[in-house]
Every structure is written in structure tokens, then in C-alpha cells.
């Protein structure tokens, strides 16, 4: 899980204000039930990012269930209602928490100039 966790947290670090938003979720557990590959992942959001684990002894506060592409897409779209209505993604448990958690990702505001400058130099990024 370390690779996935690192990728997620590096992506999250591109929006400096995001960690402050994740601090509101400290102590909460979001379970991802990934259909098609029959995997479960537990996400533990907090002020330092998101911890990811394949195991958790307690109950999750919120469960998001769907195919990998649907779960990924849900984090990017601003209005996930269509995905929920079509059954692409299901939310159970604390549904309000699930929607708030999803909204954090759809509200990300990334300034791509710094990452692009580190890859291609200042002349290509604007």
C-alpha cells in the first residue's frame, strides 16, 4: 500500500490547502470496496494526508463501492449524482461523510506551473 499511499499524497500535496481540508476528517475511516478485482482498501484521512491500508479491525464510517474507474472518476467530477443514480458507485454508512470526502477531491485547485517547471523548465510552464 505504500506506493499507492505515496502517489495519493504526492497528488494531494499539489493543492496546498487540501491538507487543511483533510484535517476535518481526522479519525474517520473510509472503506473502498473495489468491484471487479474484489479488493478492499481503507483510507484514513487527516492533516498529514491519507493513510491507505488493506486491513482495519474496526468498522468504516463510510463505504464507497464501485469499479476502479468509477471510483477514480467520482473523485474528479463536481457532481457525482449521476454516478450514484446509475449505480456506478454506491455509498453506505455515513453518506454525508462520503459526499464531503468526495467533494474535497473535486474541489482541488492545483497550480500546475511548479510541477511542469520542475519537469520541463520555466520557459514551458506558464
Secondary-structure topology with pairs:
Elements (H helix, E strand, L loop, with lengths): L1 H11 L5 H5 L7 E5 L4 E8 L2 E5 L8 E5 L1 H9 L4 H5 L3 E5 L1 H12 L6 H8 L6
Parallel strand pairs: 1-4
Antiparallel strand pairs: 1-2, 2-3, 4-5
What's this entry about, in short?
The chain is an alpha+beta fold and 126 residues long. It has helices spanning 2-12, 18-22, 68-76, 81-85, 95-106, 113-120, and strands spanning 30-34, 39-46, 49-53, 62-66, 89-93.
Molecular structure report:
This protein is of the alpha+beta class. The protein has helices spanning 2-12, 18-22, 68-76, 81-85, 95-106, 113-120; strands spanning 30-34, 39-46, 49-53, 62-66, 89-93. It has one domain (2-120): 2-Layer Sandwich (Nonspecific Lipid-transfer Protein, Chain A), CATH 3.30.1050.10. The chain has a 5-stranded mixed sheet. The longest helix is centred in the C-terminal third of the chain and has 12 residues, at 95-106. The protein is globular, with a radius of gyration of 15 Å. The N and C termini lie far apart (34 Å).
Please supply descriptive tags for the structure shown above.
126 residues; alpha+beta; Nonspecific Lipid-transfer Protein, Chain A; five-stranded mixed sheet
Could you tell me the strand content as a percent range?
A: 15-25%
- Please tell me how large the radius of gyration is: 15 Å
Measured distance between first and last alpha carbons: 34 Å
Count of distinct strands: 5
What order do the SSEs take from the amino end to the carboxyl end, as H and E?
HHEEEEHHEHH
The CATH topology comes to Nonspecific Lipid-transfer Protein, Chain A
Largest sheet: 5 strands, mixed
CATH class: Alpha Beta
Number of domains: 1
Task: Walk across the major sheet and give the strand order.
Answer: 3-2-1-4-5
Q: Please identify, by name, the CATH architecture.
A: 2-Layer Sandwich
Low-confidence runs of at least 5 consecutive residues = none
Number of helices: 6
The coarse overall form would be globular
User: What class, by secondary structure content?
Assistant: alpha+beta
Percent helix range? 25-40%
**Residue-averaged pLDDT:** 83
Considering the protein shown, what is the CATH homologous superfamily? SCP2 sterol-binding domain
Amino acid at each position: 500500500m505504500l506506493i499507492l499511499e505515496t502517489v495519493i499524497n504526492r497528488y494531494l500535496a499539489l493543492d496546498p490547502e487540501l491538507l487543511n481540508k483533510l484535517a476535518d476528517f481526522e479519525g474517520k475511516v473510509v472503506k473502498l470496496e473495489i468491484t471487479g478485482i474484489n479488493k478492499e482498501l481503507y483510507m484514513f484521512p487527516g492533516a498529514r494526508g491519507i493513510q491507505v491500508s488493506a486491513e482495519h479491525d474496526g468498522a468504516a464510517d463510510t463505504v464507497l463501492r464501485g469499479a476502479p474507474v468509477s471510483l477514480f472518476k467520482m473523485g474528479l467530477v463536481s457532481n457525482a449524482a449521476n454516478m450514484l443514480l446509475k449505480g456506478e458507485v454506491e455509498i453506505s454508512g455515513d453518506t454525508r461523510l462520503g459526499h464531503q470526502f468526495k467533494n474535497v477531491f473535486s474541489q482541488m485547485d492545483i497550480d500546475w506551473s511548479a510541477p511542469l517547471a520542475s519537469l520541463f523548465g520555466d520557459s514551458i510552464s506558464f
